[in-house]
Amino acid sequence: MDEILAALAEQHAELAVLVEALPGDGWATPTPRCPGWTIGDVVLHLAQTDELALASVQGRFDQHLEVLAGGLEGSGTVDDGAGALVARERGASAEQVLRRWSAGTADLRSALAESEPGTRVPWVVGDLAVRTLASTRLAECWIHTGDVLDALGRPQEVSDRMWHIARLAWRTLPYAFTRAGRELSGSVRFDLTGPAGARWDFAPDEPATTTVSGPALDLCRVAGQRADAVDTALTASGPDASAVLELVRTFA
Questions:
Q1: What is the mean pLDDT of residues 200-204?
Q2: Which DSSP string corresponds to 169-222?
Q3: Where in the chain are all domains bearing CATH 1.20.120.450?
Q4: In the chain, what are the helix, strand and coil shares in percent, each to the nearest 5?
Q5: What residues contact 86, with CB distance under 8 A and at least 6 apart?
Q6: How far apart are CA 193 and CA 198, in angstroms?
Q7: How far apart (Å, rounded) are the C-alpha atoms in residues 34 and 41?
Q8: CATH number among 1.10.10.10, 3.10.20.580, 1.20.120.450, 2.40.30.10, domain 2-151
Q9: What's the distance, CA 213 to chain centroid?
Q10: Which of 180, 177, 179 lies closest to 239, judged by CA?
Q11: What separation in angstroms does the CA of 110 have from each of 1, 53, 54, 223, 247?
């Protein structure tokens, strides 16, 4: 858990450096990977969802969600809901949004550190362990940091923080298949290449029937729905090869 929280703090710091350096009009830069959103909208979305995660850890998830979504239609996808929440609170200054997000990240990390990693807490699509919630927040911040970099015309750098994101994608494959109304026919192994050529092997206790191999960055981008597997160096073999590359994900 300490390693996940350290990675989360580093990811928050990376994004903070990016957005703090932007001129005022830089926050209005469109983000191609989030159609209709600006960089400011991305940071607002992270502030909203970090606050929701904090409420979950503190045992007030339902109350906070009711306040946050009050007056909005309850139908639609998770993405639809996120878009509606951003649209409703859009308009604050860059300084206000940055202060809100920065305060929320600090409070969230403190609350996560004080919680038992295995405690189950509510989230958008069901309960999950505090440890998993921390990993999902890391993954989401990493994804949206990439969105900001993309909007600024800069590449996303590799880092060891991706290990936690890749592991999350691997461990939640059963959830991803269930969410899609499909079933895994066997266990899956990820044989990935991390920064500087390090091997990241995520393997089940029993022999895997499907194996995904390639750069960890590509796997994390595909799982974050920021790249199509066919456009990456990922390869897969086994009965669930195509389905895994289609369904793997790191968020609700």
A1: 95
A2: HHHTHHHHHHHTT---SS-EEEEEE-GGG-EEEE--SSPPSEEEEEEHHHHHHH
A3: 2-151
A4: 55, 10, 30
A5: 37, 41, 44, 45, 48
A6: 6
A7: 9
A8: 1.20.120.450
A9: 21
A10: 177
A11: 12, 12, 9, 27, 32
- Quickly list DSSP for 66-92: HHHTTTS---S-HHHHHHHHHHHHTT-
pTM: 0.93
The DSSP element (H or E) to which 166 belongs, if any, is: helix 162-171
CB 94, CB 42: distance < 8 Å: no
Least confidently predicted of 20-34, 80-94, 152-166, 170-184: 80-94
- Which residue type does 25 have? D
For the domain made up of 162-247, give the CATH fold.
Answer: Nonspecific Lipid-transfer Protein; Chain A (3.30.1050)
- Parts of the chain belonging to CATH 3.30.1050: 162-247
Residue 24 has pLDDT above 90, yes or no: no
**What three-state secondary structure class fits 233?**
coil
